[in-house]
Amino acid sequence: MTRMYKDMGRDTGEEKRMTYQKLEEGRNGGKDNSSHDPLGPNSEIGRKLRQYYDELVSDSIPDRFSQLLSQLEHNEEPHSGAKED
Amino acid sequence: MSATSSFRDGLLAAVPTLRAFAVSLAKNADRADDLVQETLVKAWDKQDSFQPGTNLKAWLFTILRNEFYSQMRKRRREVEDADGMITARLSVNPSQESSSDLTDFRRALELLPEDQREAIILIGASGFSYEEAAEICGCAVGTIKSRVSRARSRLQQILAIEGEGDFGPDPVTAQVTNSANAA
């Protein structure tokens, strides 16, 4: 059906052709924008995204995580001893 | 001794970025810490399935993300309405109140659907490639690309119109906007 648009344009006048052209323009416009890194250093969204994230990363870490890992490691130790047989 | 210790060190080193990802997903610092904790326990239990030399960070992000979605499904079934209200109230992250510019950005980010939010965070902030992000999310590279691009245009849209007041601001924003108009 879409293959017919050129012929249909001839018969039904300018209107349809113009609509089609507009859609094409929109699509090409979008493609041009994404050809470079859309979240790179030149993108405001990209910069804010990293600023937002970096602030979270630099938050101080509660002790509970290193405590948890020590605990997990301690529970593990009997395992490694079992191999000595 | 050394293998276990280095695995432990690897997990500990990943905690800050895991927390950042968890806050981005859960929109709430307390829930994020629970997610990180659960991720560390799961990772520890599954450490035999991790291949040393491969990307530990990506492996941990995958575990955290799976944990987030399974908790979310559980919560949705349990207390759908009440939970939404509590989450909305708790969603202010204290460390971020410093910059109002960033507060607007965070709020805009929180309006995105989860799949778009996680995609743009993984690519634009956590430093993963499209291939890695696709693996973490268990979907095609093209899917990640389209989610990132939709997230980006949505953010642009939200941040551009938010100041005009026709976006349906939350009560706090409305109050600020109204008092600014009155002055």
Structural key phrases:
heterodimer; A: 85 residues; mainly alpha; 2 domains; 0% strand; disordered N terminus; B: 183 residues; Rna Polymerase Sigma Factor, Chain: A; Arc Repressor Mutant, subunit A; 8 helices
Number of strands of chain A: 0
Mean pLDDT of chain A: 66
Number of strands of chain B: 0
> Which value, in Å, is the CA radius of gyration of chain A?
30 Å
Portion in beta strands of chain B: under 5%
**Sequence stretches where pLDDT stays below 50 over 5 or more residues of chain A:** 1-35, 80-85
* CATH topology name of the largest domain in chain B: Rna Polymerase Sigma Factor, Chain: A
Structure, described:
- The complex is a heterodimer of chains A (85) and B (183).
- Chain A has helices at 5-12, 14-34, 44-57, 64-81.
- With 85 residues, chain A is mainly α.
- Residues 1-35 and 80-85 of chain A have low confidence and may be disordered.
- Chain A is elongated and about 50 Å long.
- Chain B has 183 residues and is mainly α.
- Chain B folds into two domains: 1-91, Rna Polymerase Sigma Factor, Chain: A; 97-183, Orthogonal Bundle (Arc Repressor Mutant, subunit A).
- Helix content of chain B is 77%, strand content 0%.
- Chain B is globular, with a radius of gyration of 18 Å.
- The N and C termini of chain B lie far apart (67 Å).
- Mean pLDDT of chain B is 84; it is low at 92-97 and 164-169.
- At the A-B interface, helix 3 and helix 4 of A face helix 1, helix 2, helix 4, helix 5 and helix 7 of B.
